[in-house]
Amino acid sequence: MYSRAFLEGRFTEDQLDGFRQELSHKAGGLSSYPHPRLMPDFWQFPTVSMGIGPINAIYQARFNRYLHNRGIKDTSDQNVWAFLGDGEMDEVDTLGAIGLASREKLDNLTFVVNCNLQRLDGPVRGNGKIIQELESIFGGAGWNVIKVVWGRGWDPLLAQDREGALVNIMNTTLDGDYQTFKAENGAFVREHFFGRDPRTAAMVANWSDDQIWNLKRGGHDYRKLFAAYTAATEKNGRPTVILAKTIKGWTLGSHFEARNSTHQMKKMTLEDIIEFRDRLEIPLTDDKLDKYMPSYFKPAPDSPEMKYLEERRRELGGSLPRRRAISRPLAQPADDAYESVRRGSGTQEVATTMAFVRMLKDLVKDPGLGHRLVPIIPDEARTFGMDSLFPTMKIYSPHGQQYQAVDRELMLSYKESTAGVILHEGINEAGSVASFTAVGSSYSTHDEPMIPIYIFYSMFGFQRTGDAFWAASDQLVRGFVMGATAGRTTLNGEGLQHEDGHSHLLAATNPAVVAYDPAFAYEVGHIFKDGLRRMYGENSENVYYYLTVYNEPYVQPAEPDNLDLKGLLKGIYLYAPAHKQRKRNAQILASGVAVNWAMKAQRLLAEDWGVAASVWSVTSWNELRRDGLEVDRHNMLNPRDKKTAYISDKLQGTEGPVIAVSDYMRAVQDQISPWVPNQFHSLGTDGFGLSDTRGALRRHFKVDAESIVVATLAELAKAGEVKEAVVQEAIDKYRIFDVRSADAGNTEGSG
User: Fold this and answer.
1) 615 pairs with which residues across the strands?
2) 32-47, pLDDT tens digit by residue?
C-alpha cells in the first residue's frame, strides 16, 4: 500500500525511509501497520490484530445496509472488501459471524483469503488442505465461494488431463507438500509432484525444469484474480469469499519463499535484492542496489504505466486508502432533553440504568440528532429496561418482521423493521463491539456522524472484548459505552462471573476511553451532554465514553442549585459537606452506588462518634489520575512553571483523613492517592463476586457504611485523634465481622 501511494505521489522517498520510525525520522515516519490513529488521513481500518478485521468487515457491510434501509444514505453502490490470511481463519472472531452475513444477504461484502498455506511458525494445515476446509465452511454458511488455485500456465496441462490423473494429484497432495515444493526447485517438483503418476510425468516430459518452476499459483495470476473480483461484485444475494492460493514471500527469493522463518526475516541480503530486481524486471542498475539503502524506482510521469495509474485513479474516484479525518458538527439537544434526570425521581426509587433509559427516550425525540442515536444491545434489553424502546424505535432487520410475534398484543411487544433503529445483536458481545465500531466511525466512512450507544453487562465489556475496544480506539471511533448492572455487590444475584469490580481499571488502560462512575441521574445527564459536545460538537475529539450504571433502585435527588459542574466533569465535587465543624473531621470520597453508603456513614460518624465527615462524589477516578499524571509530567519538564493536580486543589485545606470507596477494587480508588494531600485509605471489593444480599456482600467486602465508619476511625487513630479502643468499640458495636448483622437492603433489579 505504501509503495502504491509512493507511485501516486502521496509519499516521498524520505517518508518511505522513515518506515517504523514515526518519532525519530526527520521527515516523519510511516506506521508499521494500518493504524488510523497514527495516520488519520491515510488508513481507514485497523486490521492488525488477527480476527478483528473479518468480523468488523461483516458488521461494516451490515451497517452500510442499515444506513441505506433507514434512508440516511444511499450505500447501494458500496462494497466492503476484507483481505485476510488463511492462518487468520483460526481466530474464532474470523468465522464466528459469517452466518450473519448470509442471513442478511450481504452481497456488498467480499472476503479475499490469501491462502499461502503458512502461519507465522509453520503450515496452516500441513496434514490437510485449508482451501477445501474453508470452502466447506463458507459454502455451508451460504456464502458464494470462488477458488483461484491455479494460474493460466496450468490450463494446457489440465486440458490434457482426460483421465483426471492431474486433478487427482492436485486434490490429494497435502498443503505441507505444496509448501515444500515452492521452497525447492523445478526438478524437485517434477519428481515429487508430477512423478507420482506416469500419466502426469508424461505431461511434462518435454518441459524444462524452469518451465515447471514457473507454473504459477492462482493468487499470482492477475487475470484470474481480476475475473474473480469481477464475479464477486455481481449482486446475487450472498456474500462472497475468494480463496486465492499463493506463496508466502513470493518474488523475494529463495531465502524467503515458502520458508517457515519468513515472518521473522526482516532484512534482505544484496543477493536477495538483486534476485528481486531481476524477477520483477525493475530497471535499476547494480550500482543502485546498496544492501542497506537500495534506490527507489518510480516510472517517469509521462510513461505508459504512470498514465494508466493516474487514469484509473481518476475513473475510480481517487486514491485508496484515504480517510476523512474531520466530523461535521451536529446541533446539540436543548437543555430540556435532560429534564427527566435533572429533576430527580421524587419519592420513587429508580436505578441509574433506568434513569439513563428515560433520558435516552427523550433524546431520540430531538429534531437535530435524535435520529442519529443508535442503541446496540446484546440480548439484554429487558434486563436494562430498554424493552420500552421496542415499539417506537423498533429492532433493525433487513427482512422486517414476517412472523406473528408471541407478544404482539402487549404494549412492549418485540417489533422488527427494515427501518428499525435498534441494533439487537443477540448474545454476542464481539459482534456488538463490531457494530459499535462501524456506527462510531460513520462520521469518517460515510460523512454521517452516528452516535452508538452500546449497553451491556459491565463485566462482559472490556474484559471480554478489550482487543476490539482497542481497535475501536485505533479507528478513532466515537460514541457511548454503557456498562450496566455495574458493581461487584450491586448485581448481587449473579455471582462470580457476572459481578464487575474492575472494568474501570481495564478502561483506564485505553487512552481513548473517558470513563465515569456516576452516582445519580443528573450526573449521568451532564456527563452524556458533555460527551455529545466533545465527540459531536465543534472541534470534536477522537474519544469515546464509558459510563457504569447500576441496577439498584434508590431515590434519585434533584440536581443541586449550586452544582459544581466543572468538578463533576473533571471527576470530583463536594456533594454533602459536613453539617458542622467538629474537632475530628474526615473526607469520604465515593463513586456510583457507594455515595449512598458514604451518606449513611456520614450520619453514623456524626451521631455515634462525633466526627464531621464531608462526602465527595467522585464521578471519575480515571480522569483524576490522568490529570495528575499530566501535571506531574508538566512539572518535571517545567520546573519554573509548576501546576497542581485537580484533586489536590479540591482537597486543599480540608481536614482529616480521606477514605476512598466504590463498588470496585481498591486499585480503582488508589489511582488518585499520589495527589491526595491528606492521609489516605481506600476500601474496595477486591476478590471474586458472590451471590447474596447486597448488604451481606458489602459487609463481606467491608465497603458498607459501617465499614466506612470503622476505616475512618482507624485512620483517625493512626493520626492520634482517637484512641485505638474506639476503633474496637465500633467493630463490636456494628458486629463488623458478622455479615448477617448488615441491613440486607432491597433486592430489586438483582439479576
Assistant:
1) 576, 588
2) 999 999 999 999 999 8
